[in-house]
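Ticket closed. Logging final result for Hexose carrier protein.
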Amino acid sequence: MAGEIAITSEGGQYNGKMTPFVILSCMVAATGGIIFGYDIGISGGVTSMAPFLEKFFPEVYKKMKEDTKISNYCKFDSQLLTTFTSSLYIAGLIATFFASSVTRAFGRKPSILAGGAAFLAGAALGGAAVNVYMLILGRVLLGVGVGFANQSVPLYLSEMAPPRNRGAINNGFQFCVGIGVLSANLINYGTEKIKGGWGWRISLAMAAVPASILTLGAIFLPETPNSLIQHNKEHQKAKAMLQRIRGTNDIQAELEDLIEASNISKSINQPFKRILQRKYRPQLVMAIAIPFFQQVTGINVISFYAPILFLTIGLGESASLLSAVVTGIVGTSSTFISMLIVDKLGRRVLFMVGGIQMFVSQVIIGSIMAVQLGDHGGISKGYAYLILILICIYVAGFGWSWGPLGWLVPSEIFSLEVRSAAQSIAVAVNFLFTFIVAQTFLTMLCHFKSGTFFFFGGWVVVMTAFVYFFLPETKNMPIEQMEKVWKEHWFWKRIVGEVSGDGKMEAP
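Final structure:
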């Protein structure tokens, strides 16, 4: 076929090209990233709006407006306020394990559809909230939606994409997260100016827009060939879909790999127990370590609480929301750059560059706040804007490294037989530590003060070293042949050795 790209790996040759059908399907599925990003961005904005705080969190409002004796770092320290932000992530953590069963038993598409519907209900409840209980119940429903979407969408994108374009396609999820955060920041900046103090309702209810797109779009989404093979013994439907998404009739090599992986998958009844076996040890470690490290970069400190952070260093309410818009633009732009280069430079290079960039900027931010911002009073406008620039540098580093790659790498390294379970573990770990960071940050800021940035900077050093020593390069490797990267890695080959057909270990 003219214009066709041959995708070659050690295990054989996959034929195919990037087709409009794949691009359109992945664009619709990646809307799941927009709902996640919108929620991250919107919560930090509305919790900095005085009318919202006055209605639902009057004690915080009083400390912010009236009590000048309280430290700059402690004005927003409220467990009820952080429960509003973090309740979503506990709900998401629980929901992702239900999503694993749905994804494995029924396919990726039903799981995406369930996520969109739950998020839509949560958006409606949040926008109509008259008390804090309705508000938090709405957040729980949003969490169920995000739990299902985050479990299924990265898998869907990785399975639909040709191997040589998998990084760019999957990074589209984080790009959509960035679009969601940016959209939320822009809406918060606009609704904060609405007279009457009800603008926060629009901010919360507008989450229904991306949720509606995802829910309606999911109805028309095609199922992935991997999932069709799992649920269709004849394989004809899967073969036809594979031919359609690859734009060629010559898909036999890839189809045979998918069928072989599916046969192994069908012999496994307890994938969560299976993943504990030694042959899956590298994948299990990555399923836990990568989402953990993604959260202790400190990014959600910026995403959730950017407006509050900017209020802390002395910017006004409107200027704080505008500053959050600026960081949103930077994050989205850098993720787009990552989409363009991840399949050329590889995952490890971007992890290294981003890690160094984040560490340096965090150390300088912490140093400036330690020297210039005391417990009371403000900070000069010059230093405030310098901190804003440094936060943008930090966000850019995250945007082309741990942001998109934290979702890409776990979704592409798991064998089909444990893929759904492993993705659930990765999402659950992500939500667990998102919850912990969200629930503790305002208290941490109160007690650690500027040392908060040194705390997260230290973790960035640890995680950059971890990637350097333990994460193999996975670019251009077909997803069904990914086990080779562990057998060839200097450390993991000692663990996995050579695996026989019955799954038992043989000597390396």
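Residues 416-448 form the longest helix (33 residues). No further action required.
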